[in-house]
Each structure stands twice: as C-alpha cells, then as structure tokens.
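As the next step, I selected for study a record pairing a protein sequence with its backbone structure tokens, which the following lines show:
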Amino acid sequence: MAATQTLTQKWLSKESGRYRGKDRVYADVDAALASYRSLKPKTDAYTYDDGRMQSLLCIHGLLPITFRGASYNIPIACWLPLEYPKAAPLAYVVPTADMLVRSSDDVEVSGLCKFEYLVKWPSKPEGCSIRGLLEVMQDHFSRQPPVYAKPKPRVSTNPPSSSPPTSLPASPNPQMVASPSVNPPPNPPGSYAPPPIPLKPPIGPFAPSASPSPSGQSVINGIMGGTPTRPPPPLPGAGNVPPGYISPDNQNYAPVPQDSRYGFFTPSRPPPPPPPSHPTYTPTPPATMSPPPPSSYAPSPPPPPPIGYPAQPQPPPPPIIPVASPPPPVARPVIPDLLGGDDESLVPGGSPNVQPEPVAAPPRPPNPHVMALHNEIHARITAQMALVTKAMTEDTDRLRAIQADLLAGEPAIRDEMGRLGAVRDVCRAVADKTREWVTQVEAAVTETKRRGEPEVDELVCSTTIVYNQLIELVAEDNAIEDTMYHLHRALNAGRIDLDRFTKTMRELAEEQFMKRALIEKIEAGMPVGTRGRWM
C-alpha cells in the first residue's frame, strides 16, 4: 500500500503527523488535491492576530471559476490549524501585484473569507471537509469575484507642439524634395492650417485627377513611362502649402497627415481653396495614357531651397488609378399598393413613376376588403396570442415550482452528502484498522505453522522442579492403579495364574506406596489452599 503512494502523498503523510487528527488531515487534503489539480500543499509559518506564529499546513494555488461565461483563476490559500478538524481552516484570497480584494460580507479587505460554511464548521466538523469548502468558495466567487484589476495611474501627456521642427537635414536628391514658396501668404479665413510634414515618407496612393494640370500630366507620363522625373515646380501664389493632391477642379490641397502608428494616411477633410492668384490651367485630358516622347523627360532646373518647411524626402509617386465617375442615380419604380392604391396607377400606358401633383380632395374611404382582412387577421392573432400566453404561463408556473423544489432540496442534498462523506471517512478508518489486525493474525498463524505441533510434555509443565516432580508422581500413581485394575480382569478371565498375580500385585503395591508417600511429603510443603488437588 505504501509503495503505491506518490511523493506528495508521502510528504503529506509525514507532515500530517503533527496534527491531532492526522488521518482526517491526510484524507481531506488528499481528496482536495485530487479534485483541484491547480492547488499545491506546503508548510509555512502562519502569524495569528495576537502575534503567535505556528508552522501550519497550507493549500495554495489557483481556484478556477466561471464568471459571465468566461474562465478565471482566483489565487487562494487555505491554512489548517493544529486543532483540525475540530477547528475550521483559515481561507484567504491572495491577490497578485496587479489585483485588489473586493470587500464584501463574506470576504474582508485582508482577504480572509468568512463563509457560513466556516461559521457552522465547529458545530459539525464530521460533515465538513476542505473539498466542500473549496466548492463553496468556487460557487461564491463565480457569482461575485473577490478580486478586481488594480486601476493603472493616468500618465499626463503634453500636447504636441504645432510649430514645425526648426532644423532637419535636407535630402541630397533634388527629385524627392518639396518646393514651397519663400514668402507664404496667410491662410484665408475659415480654412484649416496646413499640417506639418510627416517624419516618415507617405506610402498611401495619391488621388487621381480627372482633369490633370500640365504638371500632373508630367507626373503621370513619368509613372507610365517608367522613368523617374522631378516633381513639378510650385505654382505661383501657392504659398508654403506642401505638395498635395490635385483635385478635379485643378486646385491644390494640403497633403493628408500620416498616422505614424500605422504607417498610412489618416483621411481628413481638405480645407477650402484659397483665392487663386495664378491663371488656371484647363488642358484637355488625353484619350489614352501613353508615355510622351523621350524629349519630355528632360530634367527641370532644381527648385529653390525650402524656407517655410524643412526638406523632407518623398518617395516616387505610385501609379495613378483612374477613378470612374459614379453613375447617375436611377429612379426606382414605385411599387403600387394592390390593396389600397388607386386603380389609375395600374392602367396600361400609365407611368407609375410619375407622381401626380397633389390636388385637394376629400379623404377616400378605406377599402372594405382591406378592413375585413385586417379584422380577421387581428382576431386570429389575438386568439393565438391568448393560447400562447396561457401555455407559456402554465410552463412558467411549472418551471417555477420545479425551481423551488430544486432550491429547497439543495441544502438537504448537501447535508446528506456531508453526512455520507463523514460515514465514508469512518468506514475507511475502520477498514484500515481491520486490515492491520488481519495482517497481524496472518503473521501469527504463519509463525505457528513454522514451529510445528509441540509435545505433550512441553504443554503440561509447572513453574518449579518440585511441582514438575509432583505431576510425574501423580501420573505414575494413576498408571499403577490402572495396571492393577487390568491384572484383576486378567485373573478373572483366567489369562494369568494366581501366583503370578499375587507377586505382581505385591510389587505394584509397594511401588504405589512409595510414590504416594512422596506425594504426601511434597504436599506438606505446599501452601494450604493447594493441598489435596492432586489425588
């Protein structure tokens, strides 16, 4: 039996020897560990409220619960006092560094649990166990978790400065540098301030232009031809607005700021365009997107150095995807009302899509067929609703009665389970003791068989040599008496003659006289209460 124990059970059997009810401690802790694999035993010092410290057995770990359909693990610790099972265990909720204990009627702020199960423990300790306590804790924590996450301190962040950076190294490649104007004009009233140039180059695709300007056409031709080109020079009067998207009405908007967290552009509403101070280009869009001749790829002179905004490297423009104009809205045909509509809308050749002009007319009376249908449907629905309501009410009453019976039977079932658990523990203890006795008896029987049957002289013996001699004299006296009896029977039967009988009887009588005299002498030296019991 000891060979089948695990290391934990051996350690538990050793540590439970310090308790008064060591068998009960071992059985309860082993059953709790078998039911909850996430709990582990240990021995540690426990400090009472009065300052006393004792080395107690503790079951600690994570107690699984289910709260609102999700699984959680509650850290707990259950200490067993030395008076266990007469004294109830000390159950605690042990929050981690990022948790706090939620105070309630059953759980204190310190984490100590005061369930009704623990309050009633001393009155009936045989019906309580550690596993039952864990089940009570699991049920209570599933309805009301004892811990919650510690609120994180708010970190105040300074608002980002709207002023652009003062100095950034310029890119050595003139093709990737923006070219703002030297003297930026003020923004028009009601417009948005241009956002700062992002630190990372934008990676989102540019919006295509329905009516591209000459500079936009140059960019498109450069992309379609596969040859890198310089960006177009800034238009006069554009201010210090960075190069952005080209709208269908040949107006330049500020670029969309880039969200550095995700690496893409955050859509924003473009500001209203400023008053144009330069002639508007209105070239005719090309029929096809064919690349221009090689002479159109001549590099333009480098733009002036930027002043309003620092130079920022820009990637080559991605390919332009033409955007088709949305189709005009199609007027949906009006679905005629077959039950309450006018008959004129269904006349062949009439147009149901054309709504007639409202004309003041008296209200049309309701259709009697429609009203009849409405009344019939309402009556049927009302009748069905009454039947369904009655059936649902009966089912609800029945289910509530079943619920009341189940709720009333739960305490009785738990009490009976506690009693059966106590009876099981007692039966196990009695079975262990009976098993020990059977083992001892079997060992004694085996030893007796090994020794064999003893002799008669070894069984009948006394405590002293004189008493052993007395036993032998009494046995010889009785033997002589039996011999004389058988000689008389032989003489009467004629098997021996008279002379031989007389001679033998004389010898036996003399020997019997001597032995009886010695017996009387030994009896004279014996205590008074033991005399006369040998003859």
Observations:
- Confidence is low (pLDDT under 50) at residues 159-313, 336-354.
- The first strand starts at residue 39 and ends at 47.
- Strands lie at 39-47, 53-67, 70-80, 90-93, 99-101, 147-149, 258-259, 264-265.
